[in-house]
């Protein structure tokens, strides 16, 4: 690989059990108007035909690189891609999503024009069954932000969101600051604010260039107790990081706004968890536990820890009536 021309952009695609969606995803990358790329496919122990599809695409496209590894989760797959990426810029595309033909070109031009470290675009919600595409309504305004202002908006989570995928990053942000994706669900929430913190400028376009597929097997549609705990952990990680860098007071207002949203969302996740199990025993206790964990991170005497903090009070999975009978 050392004799090959160094690409401008490294596109990292973690490959999972998404055989229905993967060809559309990879074809959208091949059809990019920006061609100076390497495409790193990290097959993270997929059990359907996704691995063979990735292998086929890699064999017919010289700029595709296929990595096969045991299943370790989305964070580990992204980190593996970062290890071998050679481009000046990094893009993450999930293997069940797809992108506009000018996704890379427009974000790259935006970064070059404004000497930004991160470029951000709006996105469509794509429903594969009906082929319906809905532009995310709270679209960001076309703008250039300094790091502090952008991070405040990102933490507030109104128009800017901590997804890894609708952005283009300078690779140096990861390397110079030793940033990796932590092994947990909602790893984006724990990681992207760090990248915004260390960035100089963030360039934003309101144009929707990414298609975010809404499917049954996604993290948000298959919430369980561990994922709810990780949702609260990812929230705590933002506070943890800012306190480590002695910047908590600077971001207190957006943190307060985000805290209210986290409380609403985690209660909704917990209610749906019990509804799915048709068992509401322990619902109040789970709500209290998750609320106590959030309060723990907000205490004045909270001591920040290296990496992602744990939650002191856990959500417990309710048993379905059917499982109770089987016992």
Care to describe what's here?
With 327 residues, the chain is an alpha/beta fold. The radius of gyration is 20 Å and the shape is globular. Strands 1, 2, 3, 4, 5, 6, 7, 8, 9 and 10 form a ten-stranded mixed beta sheet that branches. It has helices at 22-30, 50-60, 74-84, 103-114, 147-156, 171-176, 187-198, 225-244, 252-277, 283-298, 321-326; strands at residues 9-15, 37-44, 64-69, 89-92, 98-99, 118-127, 132-135, 143-146, 167-170, 201-213.
Short account of what is shown:
The protein has 327 residues and is of the alpha/beta class. It has helices at residues 22-30, 50-60, 74-84, 103-114, 147-156, 171-176, 187-198, 225-244, 252-277, 283-298, 321-326; strands at residues 9-15, 37-44, 64-69, 89-92, 98-99, 118-127, 132-135, 143-146, 167-170, 201-213.
User: Any idea how many domains?
Assistant: 2
Q: Identify low-pLDDT runs.
A: none
Structural class: alpha/beta
Q: Level of helix content?
A: 40-55%
State the CATH superfamily name of the largest domain: Spore Coat Polysaccharide Biosynthesis Protein SpsA, Chain A
SSE sequence, one letter per element: EHEHEHEEHEEEHEHHEHHHH
- Average pLDDT: 93
How many DSSP E strands?
Answer: 10
Briefly note the CATH topology name of the largest domain: Spore Coat Polysaccharide Biosynthesis Protein SpsA, Chain A
Give the CATH level 1 class of the largest domain.
Alpha Beta
Largest sheet composition: 10 strands, mixed
Our Rg estimate from Cα atoms comes to 20 Å
Shape annotation = globular
CATH architecture of the largest domain: Alpha-Beta Complex
Strand content: 15-25%
Q: State the separation between the terminal residues, measured CA to CA.
A: 56 Å
């Amino acid at each position: 690989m050392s004799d090959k021309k160094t690409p401008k952009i490294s596109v990292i695609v973690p490959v999972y059990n998404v055989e229905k969606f993967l060809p559309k995803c990879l074809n959208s990358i091949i059809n990019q108007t920006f061609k100076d790329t390497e495409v790193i496919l990290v097959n993270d122990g997929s059990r359907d035909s996704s691995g063979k599809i990735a292998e086929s695409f890699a064999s017919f496209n010289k700029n595709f690189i296929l990595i096969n590894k045991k299943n370790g989760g989305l964070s580990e797959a992204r980190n593996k891609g970062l290890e071998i990426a050679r481009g000046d810029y990094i893009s993450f595309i999930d293997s069940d999503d797809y992108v506009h033909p000018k996704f890379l070109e427009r974000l790259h031009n935006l970064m070059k024009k404004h000497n930004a470290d991160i470029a951000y675009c709006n996105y469509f919600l794509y429903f594969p069954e009906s082929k319906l595409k809905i532009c995310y309504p709270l679209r960001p305004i076309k703008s250039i932000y300094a790091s502090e202002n952008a991070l405040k908006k990102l933490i507030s989570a109104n128009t800017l969101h901590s997804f890894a995928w609708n952005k283009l990053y300078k690779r140096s942000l990861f390397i110079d600051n030793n940033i990796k994706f932590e092994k947990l669900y909602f790893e984006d929430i724990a990681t992207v604010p760090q990248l915004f913190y260390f960035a100089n400028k963030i360039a934003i376009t309101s144009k929707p260039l990414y298609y975010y597929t809404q499917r049954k097997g996604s993290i948000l549609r298959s919430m369980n107790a561990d994922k709810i705990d990780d949702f609260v952990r990812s929230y705590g990680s933002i506070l943890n990081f800012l306190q480590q860098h002695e910047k908590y007071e600077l971001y207190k207002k957006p943190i307060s706004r985000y805290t209210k949203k986290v409380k609403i969302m985690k209660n909704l996740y917990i209610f749906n968890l019990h509804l799915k199990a048709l068992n509401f025993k322990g619902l109040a206790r789970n709500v209290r536990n998750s609320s106590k964990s959030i309060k723990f991170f907000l205490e004045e005497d909270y001591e920040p820890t290296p990496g992602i903090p744990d939650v002191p009070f856990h959500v417990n999975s309710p048993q379905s009536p059917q499982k109770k009978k089987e016992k």
